[in-house]
Write a structure and sequence with these properties.
mainly beta; globular; 19 strands; 1 helix; 16-stranded mixed β-sheet
């Protein structure tokens, strides 16, 4: 009589986020893409600077925290390399740099919201925000239920390659100006007040929207506004 042994296959495990260097973190996102996070000032710690939750084929990056003074002026880059089942883009819930001024923040995917700036009249809160899209996944990628981005101080340039959906991007403070604004898709509002709204308490430079500006039932939804000139 033949005897057969039964072998139980173990579920494939995805390696958790890894601190490769003080300025470099890697992880696998929800659809299997390999993601790289880089800064050029300060030192990162997984527990102190990130909130990850297991999801799908890897982890959802809900939050990047850069509030420590060591991150003043840093650039932040979050990019993805396509995995077997991925799309080559990473979706980030939020970047929190309240009280800090940053250089360029680049997200190779969707960003839910960003909080940044020290309200220093001599410095821009953020030199450039460069993202593929904002708000396309609503609040599903973050722990906090908000699509309000607060930039306290100037924003040098805003580059959104796709849509800005239901996000309220607010630039306020002593140096509340926005430089060039480029939206490759559409600015889309919804039922919430100030959804799909780019707002400056000062001037806004040149504005290019290649798609549409779409309002909805929410007050001041689907709009661009400045207390100064555009």
């Amino acid at each position: 009589m033949n005897t057969f042994a039964t072998v139980e296959l173990l579920e494939a495990r995805i390696a958790p986020a890894t601190l490769v260097k003080p300025n470099l973190v890697t992880f696998t996102d929800v659809d299997g893409d390999a993601v790289t996070i880089k800064i050029n000032k300060g030192s990162l710690e997984l527990a102190a600077n990130f909130t990850f939750v297991p999801s799908g084929a890897g982890e959802q990056l809900q939050l990047v925290s850069l509030t420590d003074p060591a991150f003043e002026g840093t650039n932040l880059s979050i990019t993805a390399k396509r995995g077997d089942s991925g799309d080559g883009f990473v979706n980030v819930g939020a970047v929190d740099a309240m009280g800090r001024n940053l250089g360029t923040v680049k997200v190779g995917g969707d960003l839910g919201r960003i909080t940044v700036g020290s309200d220093d009249p001599g410095k821009a809160a953020l030199k450039k925000l460069d993202v593929r899209s904002m708000g396309e996944f609503g609040i599903s990628t973050q722990a906090a239920a908000s699509l309000l981005s607060e930039i306290t101080g100037g924003l040098g340039a805003l580059m959104v390659f796709g849509n800005l959906r239901e996000v309220h991007l607010q630039v306020a403070g002593a140096n509340a100006e926005i430089g060039k604004v480029t939206v490759g898709g559409s600015i889309i509002g919804a039922a919430g007040a100030f959804s799909g709204y780019i707002e400056s308490a000062g001037d806004i430079g040149s504005v290019i929207v290649k798609g549409n500006i779409v309002g909805a039932s929410g007050p001041t939804s689907g709009a661009i506004g400045a207390d100064g000139k555009i």
